[in-house]
Amino acid sequence: MGDESRPDGAKGSGVSVISWTGGKDGCLAAYKAILQGRIVRYLLSFWNMNRQGAHEVNPALLSAQAEAMEIPLIRRGFLSYEEEFKRVVRDLNERGERIDSAVFGHIQTHNALAERICGDLGIELVMPIWMMDSEEIIKEVIEAGFVVILVAVRADLLGEEWLGRKIDERFVADLRGHDRSIDPCGENGEFHTLVLDCPIFKKKLKIARSEASKREGLWFLDVLEFEAEEK
């Protein structure tokens, strides 16, 4: 990257890491960061060792997404998300990577955590969709050509039939018709998503076999078989 000016006005000599869960928010943040001219070197994915299976996407899917983006995935278990995130970035820098920013897909929450992480590391915090309107985010995701499905939903708000639902032009209207209290981005934990394709994927993912299960008050779409297809 050298000392070249970035389109967003920032300058730096390093590269970015991205907090990665496989969902639409982080993926959109990655997409926008790349459009800004940032060099994304790693996807950082973490799983909570105290809550195994609570919100877990099949790890093989995350690896397939990383392969589709041609960006390495670093996946770690944690007892403290904050400490493990900082440990990973410090390890990368010790290996000579020169990480100078971290990208997060936060919209309205967890900004204090992200600010603290980046402040302690001395790197730039990048939140491309921070405080964006949820409906505008959904519109941007659709218009950019993302293929996104729901893979977990709160059982007290959404039924099993919402699993696998694609985020399309009718999605927001259908949500509003079902329950107007539900945020279109699932910002309050109403649902979780999985990106199967987007402009920064070199391949698209296709689910071949899945089944629904219910645990901890959530319906999950457990993906058992999938494949990556050429675009």
From TrEMBL:
For this chain, one GO molecular function annotation is: diphthine-ammonia ligase activity
- Recite the lineage of the species: Archaea, Methanobacteriati, Methanobacteriota, Stenosarchaea group, Methanomicrobia
Q: Where are the transmembrane segments?
A: none
Write down the superkingdom of origin: Archaea
Which part of the chain is the Diphthamide synthase domain?
17-224
Q: GO terms for biological process?
A: protein histidyl modification to diphthamide
Q: Which PANTHER family match?
A: DIPHTHINE--AMMONIA LIGASE, DOMAIN OF UNKNOWN FUNCTION 71 DUF71 -CONTAINING PROTEIN
Q: What is this protein called?
A: Diphthamide synthase domain-containing protein
What are the coiled-coil residue ranges?
none
